[in-house]
């Protein structure tokens, strides 16, 4: 096989959001940058391109216009109550959390606005918690949807790289798979690996791993921005912690197959320390994609708070495990049931108001910045087009006019033999009896009514309380839900400059990490739980820090190096 060599100032492994941001910072500093990735160039932008584009901001103009009173102090209370930092190795993640919160409450929004990034005016309330003021969850709505979703957030950073590429200051090399970091006298000096055969596969699709040559790239600084492990179910199961029960035998995949975790071992072999590998973030509202892009492709329902949630046996989930409240708490509970699926029982009225789907391709109005389509799809009667497609084509959806027919079909679904039909019937009947009164002991209904005091929820996110069996709200709908892999919350431990640290806590010379590969900063900025809108934000912030430091111009404090 042929060998190819290349020299650069800054080498970035991975062209997702954090890698692109890091590249932009290094290019602004006047450095020559080379970006490599194992996928075809059609995947430039990585996982972020597929995202809903949610960003965590604190005390933003959008929040204030919606009557939301937020502050850095409240956000810090939420973050640290959510994270549950409890390990000696959490020292750097704690520092990253503090720095990121200051960024989210400070220049993050203006920094993005300078790059042309705008936001949908209604702020979402994701991960609501419900377990107390210092427990998990967001005390106030903070989920800012990027106008343009994932493609909108990556666009300015792709543009900057492509402009530099046209000027000869940046080099983008697809189909380059790193197998080893070069180390000379303890300093990382670049990378070597395999050149893969050209591929014309569309974005997100699996590509071949045929090796046609090898390569070696020498660099003054190397940034690992290769993502996490969510596309590799074997790695997910191997890292699965006892506190979350046994790993599912059946899971859907919420990220492209190339999110394979392969660079973790490569970085570790070069001296980097991996921490918090047992911390992970997977969703329990996954549905099988009727039109898949990658293997086992799943989509997450972003649910409003009204659907009745039952486990596989038909028992209602306990307080406060309602749709959209506590992702990891719900995952941990469902893993105790002995089954890999659960159920929503809901109505068309709820679905048309409360069911959003995660992903840029599932939100053509927001992604395409199409105001007319947005008004038609979000405010008009009926589900959005993508949701209707799942109602028509999705294998996990059952639509019936009455409860008995619905339960009968649920029992006939794969895994439906676990369903106690009588228990499920009683759960629906009991819930519906409570709706007839303004006074109720049903905490979910009480929280639903409370949430509708927020006009953002009342306008586009929550249906008025009603009986699930109300014919005027029908038909009734059942949705079979699966565990959907998503994010690694641990990774390469880094200091606030994004420098990879070794087992003794000292920087590995020449090596940096950013994005999910670094646990979004420090080896796990989220601790055990994420607040939503913080994954893209973590990529932005950690990529910025690593890019500036690798360029040799600033430290985390902003002082010249």
TrEMBL record:
Gene3D superfamilies: FAD/NAD(P)-binding domain
Domain of life: Bacteria
Domain FAD-dependent oxidoreductase 2 FAD-binding: 9-536
UniProt keywords, alphabetically: Flavoprotein, Oxidoreductase
Pfam families reported in the protein's UniProt record: FAD_binding_2 (PF00890)
InterPro entries registered for this protein in UniProt: FAD-dep_OxRdtase_2_FAD-bd (IPR003953), FAD/NAD-bd_sf (IPR036188), KsdD_DH (IPR014614)
Record's keyword annotation contains Oxidoreductase: yes
NCBIfam families, A to Z: PRK12834.1
Protein name: FAD-binding dehydrogenase
Protein species of origin: Microbacterium soli
